[in-house]
UniProtKB/TrEMBL annotation:
Positions of the Amidase domain: 28-432
Pfam families given in the database record: Amidase
Annotated protein name in UniProt: Amidase
Species, as recorded: Halodurantibacterium flavum
InterPro entries for this protein: Amidase (IPR000120), Amidase_CS (IPR020556), Amidase_dom (IPR023631), AS_sf (IPR036928)
Top-level division of the source organism's lineage: Bacteria
SUPFAM superfamilies tied to this protein: Amidase signature (AS) enzymes
């Protein structure tokens, strides 16, 4: 029975605990053993936390026996991207620059999740300092895509996604600055939720770009995403009962978002749109020129802030970094403070345009990424390929970050091809209801 647990949704595992069919301690051992013995485990987990996991699982067992469970996911094991602080356990953000960094307290979201009964399995690998959508990291480890062992898993929450996809965690918590939850979720056929900036507290999380950094779950179902979000903020999960697409209004974003799609991505997206429409959604196609203008601001808004935050640490020991990530950070030095301020002033105006153009729709839909997972060896040997694939990987997801939106990616049924739903800021619960209905239509 324990083998079956490794492929179940987090919510179904939680129901099993609540019904007395699953012992949280046995469940934790099943995932710890799977992670420790799986041949890809060292490429997925930076480090396991077995002592913590067992203690948390035993406490969950006692609560379950006493009828005092704290929520559906009380006793369910999750993994955490290795940029969330864990008290007494190294948090190194995939970089040799932070080797040996051991925080004294948990990140706020981990502390809240622990109070909610979550079991922390360990910390997962990621792109160096979270600054790439590919998931390629020669400094620590490069997790493989579940659909192609020679390909990268997507970044920067690469290990977070693969820990779930390979059955080494029931769900995972990652971060998303330009697509870092949604890309690895899509490439590994998972659900990924990007929350709005400020929805969840970032204290105790290694920052990349504070004006864009967000936290979100990677998991097997929309229900799991709703439950993990509630676990992270200590609130109530979105009510998904009765969710329907009947009469839902979707804007299919043309503009640049549909350019240069790989055939499999286009096929998956087309199928998804057809199924959404068959389920009762009304789909309208339109361009929003503000999207192209916003994407042009990406270098100054992302790179300038990232380099500003990390410049002193990086330049003290630049030889410790993967050269292509180092180069990307240093690109931020090309912009002045005036460029950065002017860029944000322009972006504020473009956000108003987006709001006006999309006000009549429940969500904007587009392919999560225009490409499929690139092959790791070629990324290391072919610089032009690396640059092209890295920029394309995050192109569509970055739209959600630039415009300050909430976003959800769902599998389309075509391997590694996701469909993304963009909704207004702080609309996560409404987005999850749409996602639950869309998930049924797509499967």
């Amino acid at each position: 029975m324990t083998a079956a647990w490794l492929k179940m949704t987090a919510s179904d595992l939680g129901r099993g605990i609540g019904e007395g069919r699953i012992d949280p301690a046995d469940l934790a051992e099943a995932f710890l053993d799977a992670a420790a013995t799986h041949p890809l485990g060292p490429r997925i987990y930076a480090r396991l936390t077995p002592g913590r996991a067992r203690a948390e699982a035993l406490a969950a067992r006692e609560r379950a026996r006493a009828g005092l469970r704290r929520g559906l996911l009380d006793g369910v094991p999750l993994s955490w991207k290795d940029l969330f602080d864990t008290a007494g356990v190294a948090t190194e953000a995939g970089s040799a620059l932070l080797r040996g960094r051991v925080p004294e307290r948990d990140a706020d979201v981990l502390a809240t999740a622990t109070l909610g009964g979550s079991v922390c399995l360990g910390k997962t690998h990621l792109s160096e300092l979270a600054f790439s959508g590919l998931g390629l990291n020669p400094v620590t480890a490069t997790p493989p895509c579940v659909n192609d062992a020679d390909a990268v898993a997507g970044g920067s929450s690469s290990g977070a996604a693969t820990s779930v996809a390979f059955g080494l965690a029931a769900g995972s918590v990652g971060s998303d600055t330009g697509g870092s939850v949604r890309i690895p979720a899509a490439w590994n056929d998972l659900v990924g939720l990007k929350t709005t900036v400020g929805r969840l507290p970032m204290r105790g999380t290694v920052a990349l770009c504070e004006r864009f950094d967000t936290i979100g779950p990677l998991c097997r179902s929309v229900e799991d995403a709703a439950q993990i979000l509630a676990l992270l903020d200590g609130g109530q999960p979105a009510d998904l009962r009765g969710a329907s697409l009947e009469g839902a209004r979707f804007l299919l974003l043309r503009s640049v978002a549909m350019d240069d799609l790989r055939p499999a991505v286009e096929d998956g997206f087309t199928r998804a749109v057809d199924r959404l429409a068959a389920a009762g959604a009304r789909v309208t196609e339109a361009e929003i020129p503000a999207v192209t203008e916003a994407l042009a601001l990406s270098p100054v808004l992302f790179s300038a802030e990232a380099y500003g935050l990390w410049r002193d640490v990086i330049e003290a020991q630049p030889d410790l970094m993967f050269p292509r990530i180092l180069e990307r950070f240093r690109g931020g030095a090309e912009f002045s403070g005036a460029d950065y301020v002017a860029g944000w002033k322009t972006m504020a105006g473009l956000r108003e345009v987006w709001g006006a153009e999309t006000a009549g729709y429940d969500a904007v839909i587009l392919p999560t990424s225009p490409i499929l997972p690139p092959h790791a060896d070629r990324l290391l040997s072919d610089q032009d390929y690396y640059v092209r694939e890295n920029l394309l990987a995050l192109r569509n997801t970055r739209i959600g970050n630039l415009f300050g939106l909430s976003a959800l990616t769902l599998p389309t049924g075509v391997p590694s091809a996701g469909v993304m739903f963009l909704a207004p800021p702080m609309a996560e619960e409404r987005l999850l209801r749409l996602g639950a209905a869309a998930e049924r239509a797509l499967t």
